[in-house]
């Protein structure tokens, strides 16, 4: 559920986490889920199916997205999109200058332009069965435009356990990779994006 606190903006749940206000109703759970799935698909996977013009860096007009959403479900308004983005704790989307884009998760061909990461290490989790081939071939994206790395070991474990029960986690020398010319971008506190990580930058494995 999405509600809006007059003082602290949109939030998910029954009460504002900042002041315990109930706020004003925006979307119920079902419509929040449906609109979220629609926006994810539109901005990450199939804008062309919706005849949604997209810039090469992933931006689309928020007005055009609102029109496309209303054609699909009838009820969405532009303020519903703003509320969904503002209340999203994972920071999956960004809005600027009347445009919106997904920060990560694209399967379509986009060229994102986030700053280079200034940390030393990154982490990436896989199933134990994948370890040997990655040590030989490096880490490459699967079904996505960019490879998604985690900034912490804890986050890498959290992400990997969605796909495998006992993940193996690679520690990656991102600083050296960037010094050698690899483009490793920071999206938010948890996620980095890059084209690939050659095996030479893998430092150790946590199992």
Describe this structure in words.
The longest helix is centred in the first third of the chain and has 16 residues, at 29-44. The chain is built from six helices and twelve strands. The strands form four sheets. Strands 2-1-3 form a three-stranded antiparallel beta sheet. Strands 4-6-5 form a three-stranded antiparallel beta sheet. The chain has a three-stranded antiparallel beta sheet with strand order 7-9-12. It has helices at residues 29-44, 62-73, 78-87, 131-137, 153-160, 174-179, and strands at 2-5, 9-12, 24-27, 60-61, 93-96, 99-102, 121-126, 147-150, 168-173, 185-186, 191-194, 202-206. The protein starts with a strand and ends with a strand. The model has no long low-confidence stretch (mean pLDDT 95). The protein is globular and about 50 Å long. It is α+β, with helices and mostly antiparallel strands and 207 residues long. The chain has two domains: 2-102, Arc Repressor Mutant, subunit A (Orthogonal Bundle); 121-206, ADP-ribosylation fold (Alpha-Beta Barrel). Strand 10 and strand 11 form a beta hairpin. This is Probable RNA 2'-phosphotransferase.
